[in-house]
Each structure stands twice: as C-alpha cells, then as structure tokens.
Amino acid sequence: THFGFRTVDKNKKADMVADIFDSVSAKYDLMNDLMSFGIHRLWKRFTIESSAVRPGQKILDLAGGTGDFTAKFSRMAGEKGEVILADINSSMLMIGREKIRNQGRINNIHYVQANAESLPFCDNYFDCITFAFGLRNVTEKEKALSSILRVLKPGGRLLVLEFSAPVFPWLRKIYDVYSFHVLPKMGKIVAQDEQSYRYLAESIRMHPDQDTLKLMMMNAGFEQVTYSNLTGGIVALHRGFKF
Ligand code: SAM
After folding, report:
1. How are beta strands 235-241 and 152-163 bridged, if at all?
2. Residue-range domain boundaries for the chain
3. Which residues bind S-adenosyl-L-methionine (predicted)?
4. pTM, two decimal places
5. Burial of 228 by CB count in 10 Å (0-12 exposed, 13-18 middle, 19+ buried)?
C-alpha cells in the first residue's frame, strides 16, 4: 500500500519461510516419509515420468530442496544435459548437494541459491522446469510464474507439484483433522518443531485449488495448461507449456 504495509508483510512471510526451512532441513527427508506414509515418493515418480526429460536437455529443479528430482533428472539428461538445483535456502541446498554427491552422480549438476520470483538465468534457457512443493511458499506467485516463463525455452514445459484441494468431502474431513492435529504433533515429536508443521498445514489450506492455479498459470502466459489429481486431490500436478 501507500504506507508500505504490504512490503512489511511480504518480508515477514519470506523471513518466516526462511526460518522454517532452516529449522526443518536436517529432518526434512525423514519427515516427508513419515507425514505422507511414503506416498510423496509416488507423487514425485509420477511427476518425473510426466516430465519427458531426454538426454541433452536443460532442466531446472526449482525450490529443489534436498534434491530428489535433481538426482533423477541428472541421470535422465545424461552427460550432455544440464540440471540446476535452485533453492532460496542455503541449508536445504547444502543438504541436497551432500546427498547427491554421496550418491556419486555424473557431473552435470549445478547448485544455485535463487528466489523463484526473480530467477538469475538467461531468457529461453530451460527445456523443463519442475516446481515441487515450492510455489506455496512463494510470496508473489504471479511474479514467480512470469519469471519461470521467461527462462523457459519456447516449447518448454513447467510442472508444478503442489498440495491442492481434496475432491471428496469425506477425504477433506479426514485430511483436515490429520493436517491440523496430527501433523504438528508429529513435528513436535520427530523434529522438535511443532510451529513449522503448523505452518505447513496452514499454507496448504491457503494455497489456490486446482482450477485457480490453472487460471493463474494461464494468466501468466502458459498454454495447454492441464492438471492431474493425485491421491484424491490432496496433491495435484499442473503442467503448462511456453509457445
Ligand atoms: N522440491 C523439494 C521436494 O519436493 O522435496 C523441496 C520442497 S520444500 C517443501 C520447499 C522448498 O522451497 C524449500 O527448500 C524452500 O527453501 C524453497 N523455497 C521457498 N520459497 C522459495 C522461493 N521464493 N524461491 C525458491 N525456493 C523457495
């Protein structure tokens, strides 16, 4: 606003997200497995299979965190390809790099600390960008979507994997109890951090549903935007192209 209140709020959200991922980074992979009963691996596998990454392509794993996608894309893109793991948070990036190095990956990965809202890459550079469980944390989502569109090549694709709105009322009820009551307690016991997992539940509730996100992507300039519901819409995979 005129008085700068919006700026203060935005900075607050960015600082809060930074603190949360600093705090959860060490236990991030373990908590993902526990909280989703391992199902996040299936959501990720579906995304990787939908990505159609081929040898020689340039891939951006945006908000890539501990690098689950990067590790797979590195193999798919091969020696002549290039994979960039970008994340705003240095603790998450460091854990990702360590994990990937321990797996002995080929030499086609770069690590970049970057904000999705203003990506530090050339125009028309990437064949494919994945943005998994990251958009929810971004303060200015429209800005991030335009920044992604700018760095995609014409013909390139964006895949957004994100929590969404369960499609069955009964599932929504169970899910609400689970995310608002069980998750924070799990966070407290396993990661000694109830607050961050309360934020997780709240950020999921606030995030745009399937059709709203589809519209946001179309408004940002993506074409042929479609989505698939996974696990009854608890998660959705949106795809969009730049032409
Ligand atoms: N993509 C990984 C996965 O699926 O396991 C990590 C997801 S993790 C829930 C969200 C990540 O988004 C964190 O590593 C966080 O640091 C990153 N993040 C949050 N805001 C960001 C921003 N504005 N730009 C880039 N990364 C951001």
Report:
1. antiparallel
2. 5-241
3. 66, 87, 115-116
4. 0.92
5. middle
CA 41 to chain centre: 14
Splitting the chain (243 residues) into consecutive groups of 10 residues, what average pLDDT does each group show?
Answer: 44 80 82 89 96 97 95 95 96 93 85 97 98 95 98 98 96 92 89 87 91 98 98 97 97
Rounded Cα distance between 239 and 217, Å, is 9
CA of 64 to the centre of ligand 1 (A): 6
DSSP three-state, residue 224: strand
Residue of 92, 115, 121 to mutate, ligand 1, most atoms within 8 A of C-beta: 92
Q: How far apart are CA 80 and CA 98, in angstroms?
A: 23
- Please give the CATH topology (third level) of the domain spanning 5-241: Rossmann fold (3.40.50)
Q: Name the E strands within 88-151.
A: 109-113, 126-132
Residues in the chain, how many?
243
Please determine, for the modelled complex, whether the ipTM score is greater than 0.95.
Answer: yes
